[in-house]
């Protein structure tokens, strides 16, 4: 085994341990932080596996377990990072469990007794892992435009371009080189790339922007957990921002939120403002992390009034949903239930008893 490969693999593992320590100390209380820690642990064992001498069956299993969890951990981290108000789908857990079981079976099934089954399990493992990685990339892309947290938007872009694409290339390369010899220098090149990514992650977490991850992650929900990093105080508005805020509030009071498919870019154009200025205003001064949730506040307020109005009791729920800017009933029901813990129909029945 080339000395350069061992050197760069060891460097990457050391840097990943440093990043793991930072995550464990500062972000262990947040779901996204824990999934990111699991992801880094899997990458650590993936890089360490080729340089471990003479492993037994038990050691192989303990090393392969976190490695096989990498695609699922990436999806869980991406979902927790970008879906503050949603629960991870049950079918997603099932898909991760199937991928884990197939991956471990393909790696540890006795090839002497079950050669055909092991071969087919290995062929099934690759699309399953690619599917999990693809789901993570989709989670990062969802509502990217409506994300008001600038640090999280930047983090999404970095993850999409570097980590997500890197893991897709690794999975595809593993599948390709399973059927033909690995060209000389490829393992070392991979180790160099991994150490470079690990170094960039540590620089970002510890030096260049130590608060960026804290600002990006959803806030911890436990009431007894205090913030580990000091919160940034909102700076006072200057005259231009104050005028924009008054304009925004007036526009919303006049029903600007009713426009179907309204994006923050369109709203900025309607207000004659720059998009990044409007993003910062809604995020830092009004306290909203997602533009759609900001719109939902106005839409659900109006829907609640109309559902409780006896004069509008004849209107179908769908009509009200379309009137206030929703494209269909499903997102309206989800947003309404997050606010009132009951469906629009149940809310109307409670407000207008027969």
Q: How would you describe the overall organization of this protein?
A:
29% of the residues are buried. The protein is elongated. The protein has helices at residues 3-26, 31-48, 57-68, 70-82, 90-108, 115-141, 150-176, 186-208, 212-216, 239-253, 264-271, 275-285, 291-307, 317-323, 329-340, 344-351. The longest helix has 27 residues, at 115-141. α1 (3-26) packs parallel to α8 and α5 (90-108) runs antiparallel to α6 (115-141). The chain is mainly α.
Overall structural class, as computed from helix and strand content, comes to mainly alpha
> In DSSP terms, counting alpha (H) and pi (I) runs of 4 or more, how many helices?
16
Task: State the end-to-end CA separation.
Answer: 79 Å
Low-confidence stretches: 221-233
Helicity level, as a percent range?
55-70%
Q: What is the tally of beta strands?
A: 0
